[in-house]
Specification:
four-stranded antiparallel beta sheet, alpha/beta, transferase (chains A, B, C, D), 18% strand, 2 domains, Aspartate Aminotransferase, domain 2, 346 residues, Aspartate Aminotransferase, domain 1, PyrdxlP-dep_Trfase_major (chains A, B, C, D), lyase activity (chains A, B, C, D), 41% helix, homotetramer, transaminase activity (chains A, B, C, D), globular
Chain lengths: 346, 346, 346, 346
């Protein structure tokens, strides 16, 4: 298998594995009461610049989204998301399973525009029947989005200000956070994010970990008894070390950030490989997911040699292809891809 | 830390870690569509003697219990459990979170007696108001139980027959399955269990894995679209390999069974260490959890040197202590414990 | 208060009240086991031409929708609805509270077009990630719709055929059923509906009852233990007679149908009153809800004399007004409205 | 049918019906925004001595219990109830359907003893694993209880004080409130109850109404947007008048209290009828439900002439019978029952 289909094809970065090996036989208390969990949380708090932050480790993204969203909403609240949001599309109705509606705004680029958010909120409270409707009770954004795009600091700040005005929480899904932070296209740092939003998660699964995501409530603002909420939904590892030790490795000496840069460097090379061969972008993405418009016959041939995602139909004769790089992508992989393109396009 | 408090203090057995390392950089499809997931499932099916079985990998026990139980019940059903059952006590109301009541039967030893089950079912349908009550819609047993006890083949068969008569599913929680299978006190093999019950899980977290449990529907009887049910509740790993590769190691060359035996051998030695020193059992457990009655002043002193669980109060001056061995317990550990006992009891 | 704002301003039709009075002191068993419940169900079965039908009485529409939809879906299913559907807009997220997503199709007229439904289903199963998404597990239509429009027999049949092809249930919300059946704009009879759809309800609250809706599973196809499902959600009246006796009155000598006709006659006169005075329709509705485009200044003045709903903004200077007639609307009411229009428009 | 089986055999008290008739054709706004709803709430606030109280009208008891309990608990909370509590036994798992466990205390007489409550709370926080367990997050009591017994003012106050100490709400189910208030066996008035508990409901269905219960949050302490919570669960009548007008009648000129007294007078006569004929009590109940021990052969014969509930088996040859009086029971009914006893016992 040789594939750019997604950014979770490989296992863990070698430093992550080594840390797991190194700590393996140490006897530790369960359920996140071990010292590695504390140390990993400390490193994350430091990287986020939020000494009062609370950090919780989850196994995966859907679980994280569903539990966080349910825990920050009132029972009558829905969560506002771009139509393209992961919680609206690819979590099998996890949010609804917890009793909440996803209130969508149309989106071309995966982002919510501040003015869209304001309009939704103004319209809701203008409606005479608002008490019979789902309350817009929180906002979900992803950064990078599902389309690889990024918020700027001013965009995210504008959204956060509207949330504050309406007293609703802002939640940022950072499944691919590392790939967003490394991009030049956004001026948002991890510390900015921790200042601006109410809760976010730093994705491990897609950025060098075997599994795991780190939820941060940056101002000590976790819902009461959040541990028990996690437990109730089956989100707590008996061996809390499983995820904590991995984040310990990722946040030691800035590894997490370097993995992001590595993936973006490779994305840049991948772009060139395509552009040099006359392909065109579907959208210009500043992160590790690149979208191209490719003629269908060629798509078929390519698929014999390399994995990628067909994101959709472009027109009758072309498709939109998604190629992802990751922390594990090497220059050799890019060269091999270039060779395949040359071979196939001949 | 030196502790017999539980059986999940260490990381993973070395063979499990090695398999993770060995397969780490292989590119694999996500969400359980990789070949290791298939191979692990094949080995499990073979070990269970159920060629038509369906195998699903989960991250942990609570998640497994909650999702399996909800998926096999009708909306108006409750699940029957011993009062001491894990789902009734230590899962923070996970079953209730999915909308179902736990219908309890009193239990001294952690087990449900067949006659208790029959009485509950007869009484329910005898009650004129049954349609206003929670239906007894399934049975939950654990093997070993939370008290370390075991069902015999004839006991489990008797329960299964009642379930069949009432057309309700029987689910077996095998969080510590390996420690049950290795015990002489039960004549139940893994194949027996697969024949007798409707669904069960083979616990990895407590028997050599970093994390993970393998659910088996032995007769191809999984609820429709069980994958999507898992996904909706956030139970699916993007990197399905995380758990699958571990079970691949555990079910290669009977490692899982050997780990169980290792723990039981150590439990036997641990017993002797206590008995030789004049301690007495609270209950005689045939598995890896051993319960002793210890005088409170001694408990306090012991706690300075070794970890264990205080399971409860025995009388005004004595407590019930639980000591667990595991796959990771060594003869050296037992010797050290003996030394501590000698030291402290002087 | 003088109002055309909705069709539930008055209490019950006199025959309904009389039946309640007449039967009031008779001692009856509770929870729907009384003979009036049986008789009302018999009359409804007869009116629907479905001798094997099962009839259940609920207190109100939202409760009915939410319980029926949840009971006919699998846990991973969503319900397909027009964007304008009541379940999507004005039930405070009741469907999501039961764990299901509302999958919407855009709609100008409140209806789902058969081709829209087919496209949604085809697209779903064409998507490679379908197992990660909410399944299109059932269809919700309302007749009349929230915009007063009606399905024709061939439209509803086409939808039902697609449902059958995909093995998903079709549910029809008949909150205003009486006003749809009386309209010339649809060729659907109650018996047609009972033949075509899988479950529907006959609305009482808006058509002459104090409260109550009658759910019909026309082919004995109610989910198992539907009574207990209702009970669990608090939908069962201790005095089952409360709703049953009202439906007994409504389905004696065709009263329900006559009430529908009365409302539509009055709607016709109301239309004329507006058209004769130069107002124009927003949409031409064939039922008891009429929509007009009215200049904002005039809206303000009108509101001093008569109640109506402002359904939305038409343009900067005009609004869309909704006027409802009902079983209780009299010719005198229409005359009074005409007088107000003359007075105000001067 | 001639029956003492329950207290909801008849329709509504004549004054209630009259009020419905009298107000029937008045045009009123929907969803509880009408003046009768306000007036009924005012009368209830006055009767309860709580000028800041918030009053909400529901259709029935299970619905009321389920919605109130869910709305006052945190997601990780269970509700403490006597084992015999209605929410634990006869609501088909409604509380669990909303995601909460019922935490039971054993009870012979249907009541929770203050010391039982304290022990449960102390034990919970003493348990090292408390964060893995269902929190005792609220207390449910019924008054009268399901066994017809009553709390005294000092008992209820003691419970309330423990609740305040642990900062958990106390909820009182008053399905049969009228029959409790009229009893000499309790010194609790409606005003006392409103002072002591955090939320309660005044039952209408069993005390003279066709349907309906009035929930009171006596200190303006309703959960935020409680209306929308009700709406979401299908608890809101479009015609809010349906229940409000009935309570208007019940709380005009103390009718509600008189109906309670009438039922208790009849219960007193019923007791005498049994005692004079040599029957013995199962328990001595101070309210409208009376329990007798009757020989099985006689039970069979009695059942041919009069309705009653067989509450359980007393011994091999005797059963426990429950006879209820209600607001509708007349002296003539008691005489007729006496005649039947004489006839049958011969």
């Amino acid at each position: 298998m040789f594939s750019f289909e997604c950014d979770y094809h490989e296992g863990a970065h070698q430093s992550v594995l080594l840390k797991l090996i190194e700590t393996n036989m140490e006897q530790l208390p369960g359920y996140g009461e071990d010292h590695y969990t504390r140390e990993a949380a400390d490193l994350i708090r430091e990287a986020c610049g939020c000494p009062d932050g609370q950090v919780y480790f989850f196994a995966g993204g859907t679980q994280t989204n569903v539990t966080v969203i349910d825990s920050i909403l009132c029972p009558y609240d829905g969560i506002i998301s771009a139509e393209t949001g992961h919680v609206n599309c690819h979590e099998a109705g996890g949010v609804e399973y917890t009793g909440h509606k996803v209130l969508t705004v149309p989106s071309e680029d995966g982002k919510i525009a501040p003015e869209q958010l304001r309009k939704l909120l103004v319209d809701f409270y203008d409606d005479e029947a608002w008490e019979h409707m789902v309350f817009p009770g929180g906002v979900y954004v992803s950064h990078p989005t599902e389309l690889g795009t990024l918020y700027t600091r001013s965009e995210l700040t504008a959204i956060a200000e509207i949330c504050r005005e309406y007293k609703i929480p802002l939640y940022l899904d950072g499944a691919r956070m590392g790939y967003g932070l490394a991009s030049d296209a956004s001026d948002l740092t991890l510390k900015d994010i921790a200042k601006i939003v109410d809760v976010f998660y730093i994705g491990g699964t897609k950025v060098g970990a075997l599994c795991g995501e780190a939820v941060v409530f940056p101002r000590g603002n976790a819902p009461e008894h959040f541990f028990t909420i996690m437990k109730q939904r089956g989100n707590v590892f008996a061996k809390g070390r499983v995820v904590a030790v991995q984040f310990l490795a990722l946040f030691t000496d800035g590894l997490y950030f370097r993995l992001g840069e590595q993936a973006l460097d490779m994305a840049e090379e991948l772009k060139q490989v395509f552009l040099e061969r006359g392909f065109r972008f579907y959208v210009e993405s500043p992160t590790n997911m690149q979208f191209f418009v490719v003629e269908n016959e060629l798509v078929r041939k390519l698929h014999e040699h390399v994995g990628f995602e067909v994101s959709g139909k472009y027109d009758e004769t072309h498709s939109i292809l998604r190629f992802c790089t990751s922390w594990a992508t090497t220059r050799e992989d890019i060269r091999r891809l270039a060779g395949i393109l040359d071979e196939v396009a001949r």
